[in-house]
């Protein structure tokens, strides 16, 4: 198994090199040269496995022997031992034909933990094997930051810097990131949006001299290892729901920002999992909804919403999908991405648009509908949705026919977003781990959203701080 770039200018590399490279050196995203196909017989066997066993089977296709079996098993077990639910990602039935896949039982109460507990342990494993420097640089819309810090804190040889948009994350998200007091952790609150943060880190990663000098590593979903870890729960959820009855196909509704989570679903489908519709649920930052409906990919005006982790205009992983849409033609992807940079939009033709609509359904959820959906489900079923999951459920209601069965990905615990929940006149009880955060001092620096300012702060952090 080798990995190549969506833009075609990186020589094929192995799994560990792919994890370490993060963003492809030609500015593209790394993808497997060939997507492994899982035969129906094998799927049947897999349906009996525990979450950890299943993760091992699926991840093995992609690691392809670069990590010995017993060590990979141990790495996976360690990653999911930190989850509060023995099933790791349990599936709950909310009403007939409607399920939620609870992805928030990890240390920071959001789905990012599923991939970042794994990636943190993977980096630690690579450091122990190779002694290579691991200086992590990431941008967050709120959840990745805390989850990445939680994934690497206390691990030898790893330093981390996270950029978050100052004042645009929820209180609990901010506390989770900034109350970790550790010399190897640096939180920069930038005066700007998530898109600014994501652009800055992408530009710093694209500056190969800087990237190599400081051994920058990625924890954003530009890193293929994150996508890989996330494919596992599509399989797991599929098996749990179909075990219960004779279901021909199953839809998934996915609260979407950077297109990472839904791309993992797309990958699972390409591997042979018989998924029905993949529903892209967005909030009012609905560039992806507009693309899927009209074939025009063009950022609109940034909006702050009740679901801040999805307040994203330019979706990094979209390029991975584009690669498959263009029949794996890296030259064309490259040309389109250049066009996007120059003209600020991508337009696809009729045939391609039909393909897009065969691959995805989409719905952008207005703020008001997000809150209404939270209230409705709380009153009718007693199930409390967080505002991101609520967008997923609202999109399920629009895009999945009543007779079809659908799983909505519950991407965060409602306690992380009490700002939105309280607007629905619902009083929730915080889990103890979240309550404790309010007592702790915060460590962060507010900086301009400027490449040079951030680069020089990074130089200091990555040069002088102790890596554990
Ligand atoms: C990150 C995040 C999303 C969006 O996931 P993508 O992979 O970026 O599309 C949705 N909901 C929550 C709670 C998140 O933290």
From TrEMBL:
Pathway: Amino-acid biosynthesis; L-threonine biosynthesis; L-threonine from L-aspartate: step 5/5. The keyword Transport does not apply. It is an enzyme of class 4 (lyase). Its cofactor is pyridoxal 5'-phosphate. Pfam families: PALP (PF00291), Thr_synth_N (PF14821). Keywords: Amino-acid biosynthesis, Lyase, Pyridoxal phosphate, Threonine biosynthesis. One of its GO terms (biological process) is threonine biosynthetic process. The keyword Acetylation does not apply. The modification N6-(pyridoxal phosphate)lysine is found at residue 112. Residues 2-80 form the Threonine synthase N-terminal domain. It catalyses: O-phospho-L-homoserine + H2O = L-threonine + phosphate. Its EC number is 4.2.3.1. Residues 94-396 form the Tryptophan synthase beta chain-like PALP domain. GO terms for molecular function: pyridoxal phosphate binding; threonine synthase activity. SUPFAM superfamilies: Tryptophan synthase beta subunit-like PLP-dependent enzymes. Belongs to the threonine synthase family. Catalyzes the gamma-elimination of phosphate from L-phosphohomoserine and the beta-addition of water to produce L-threonine. This is Threonine synthase. It comes from Bacillus benzoevorans.
